[in-house]
Design a protein that fits this description.
8 helices; Arc Repressor Mutant, subunit A; about 240 residues; Rossmann fold; alpha/beta; homodimer; DNA-binding
Chain lengths: ~240, ~240
DNA sequence: TGGGATTTTACAATCTTTTTACAAATGGCT
DNA sequence: AGCCATTTGTAAAAAGATTGTAAAATCCCA
């Protein structure tokens, strides 16, 4: 289960380039893991895998002492085909290999590169997984479901309220709904709800959640003033009851 | 069709690319025939024809000594219209020719390309040609259709606006319209709209899309300032409503 | 080189999310 | 029961992020 953020792993032995990239990508809002050689990167990927927080994309320098970017690319592809890969390569024979062998990298950039170009390619590679003209919310199987006294359509980001009105859902509200629907009949702590809907690196206050629950109640309760489905468990958290 | 397997013919003179492609496609489970120039490829197709095992799809490099991919494409289309064709081309004038001439290729990919993208396009092309014998070619649904408060004529690349004026559509706008019309009532993410209208290897920013939506609104909304048909879903994307 | 199409830029406008502030409710305690 | 500290409800303000769009810059073909 990933956070909201996009995670990028860098494997690059040249420190100047590595830290430069890391800084630039952080500024762009990506979560960055920078590794100074291939084996460290390989290890980082495996560690991340165990914690279920795989990088979304890896930037691999082709020329590195020890495990090369080529090998790393193959390894990562073999074990985690869902991770996107961009190779950083010098012009010349190195580039030929990239083009010829096509190791399964999604793209490559030849050094020296302009930062703007790399950023553009990163965006493009990350975008490809979105598929063409598919609903914003993947999973065509995401069928509408009942939530409290309302009907939620996750593909359309909409809810039919008990009064029959059709209202739009914001992304945050939908995530919150999904957190509740996954655990009916169980009181959920504010922390775990924040974690589920906002991600583990959320630093806001807990009142944010209360506010959103209030909004949700207005949408899915017949009588929001005395909630039946989104119940307060004083001192514990909130509980969803079908 | 023939056996169970899908048969792909490659015509590409660069050995590195040819064998790389052949390997990659084999791994994907396709049956591959790799040819190093146009005349060998032409011969291979004819031999296959005699044995009743035509390729389902041909990947043709445009720049080849001897018979070019252009000629090959025309020949194959003439003799075996059921074979799908994807052209491999460099950017620039080569690409212009592909777009301009009525070669009848099902798709094209500009070199250098990412393997992932080519595979995606292969799947898409095969899906289309397998789907129905209906000619999914160029002018698929050539009939004018209603879009928002306007009437779009895809053949003439024109739109009759709500005010009754006849305006020209650019290719980009038309593709965007088609992406919307395929998913009414569902919010589409900026990413998937970019993929649909600009292609998956587009490196521009997402604001380009916003700009085009604004242009579209001026064409198809009665009151572009408060759109009814091309609706913004804040934080999600855009949604087309009939 | 000219003219349209496309893309980027920059700033304003809009919408969502978060925080704040205070009222109300709860539950432990005597 | 009554008191009090704590927790929760919620309107409204503030902060933050996203989107609208005109205008400038760039691209691209004829």
């Amino acid at each position: 289960m990933s956070d909201g953020g996009i995670r990028i792993l860098i494997a690059e032995d040249d420190e100047a380039i590595r830290t430069g990239l890391a800084d630039a990508l952080s500024v762009e809002g990506y979560e960055v893991v920078a590794c100074e050689d291939g084996s460290i990167a390989a290890k980082a990927v495996e560690d991340d895998a165990k914690r279920g927080r795989l990088p979304n994309l890896c930037l691999l320098d082709v020329m590195m002492p020890g495990i090369s970017g080529f090998d790393l690319c193959r390894n990562i592809r073999a074990g985690h085909p869902e991770i996107a890969i961009i190779l950083l390569t010098a012009k010349g024979s190195e580039l030929d290999k990239v083009l010829g062998l096509e190791l399964g990298a999604d793209d490559y950039v030849t050094k020296p590169f302009a930062l703007a170009e790399l950023l553009a390619r990163i965006r493009a590679v990350l975008r490809r997984s979105a598929g063409s003209a598919a609903p914003a919310r993947g999973a065509a199987s995401a069928k509408p479901f009942r939530f409290g006294a309302a009907e939620v359509d996750p593909v359309r980001y909409s809810v039919r309220t008990p009064s029959g009105a059709e209202e739009n859902l914001t992304p945050t509200l939908l995530k919150l709904i999904e957190a509740f629907i996954a655990n009916p009949g169980v009181p959920l702590s504010r922390d775990s709800l924040l974690n589920a809907a906002w991600g583990s690196s959320y630093y806001g206050t807990t009142r944010t959640l209360d506010q959103h629950v209030a909004i949700l109640r207005k949408l899915v309760e017949k009588n929001p003033a005395s909630p039946v489905h989104l119940v307060t468990r004083h001192g514990i958290g909130y509980e969803y009851r079908m």
